[in-house]
User: Which sequence fits this backbone?
């Protein structure tokens, strides 16, 4: 009877691991799919920041030409740059993680 209890305990523990890992994989896939679906938006934001339109909007806001009550976090000096950098770092992290996972598979 002790051997059967050990088998049951083993199955229960492995089932919990399976469920936990499957949930994490599903969440990661959903997050990656969401980011991928926003790639065109990311490109537009990058172009806005790099091509100078950001500077024009920043200057207009600082000169009082834009209503001060609108949400304008995009005009902070670091928000877009940090997002672009974070996105790049995340892509590198995903590549490194995928390579490690495949190597350990």
Assistant:
């Amino acid at each position: 009877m002790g051997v059967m209890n050990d088998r049951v305990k083993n199955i229960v523990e492995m089932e919990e691991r399976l469920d936990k890992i499957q949930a994490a994989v599903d969440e990661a896939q959903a997050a990656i799919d969401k980011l991928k679906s926003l790639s065109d938006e990311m490109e537009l934001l990058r172009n806005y920041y790099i091509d100078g339109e950001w500077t024009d909007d920043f200057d207009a806001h600082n000169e009082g030409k834009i209503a001060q009550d609108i949400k304008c976090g995009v005009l902070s000096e670091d928000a877009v740059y940090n997002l672009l950098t974070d996105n790049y770092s995340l892509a590198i992290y995903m590549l490194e993680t995928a390579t490690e996972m495949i190597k350990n598979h």
About this structure: The chain has two domains: 1-37, 38-105. Residues 97 and 103 are 10 Å apart (CA to CA). Helices lie at 2-37, 39-50, 53-62, 79-103. The chain is about 80% helix and 0% strand.
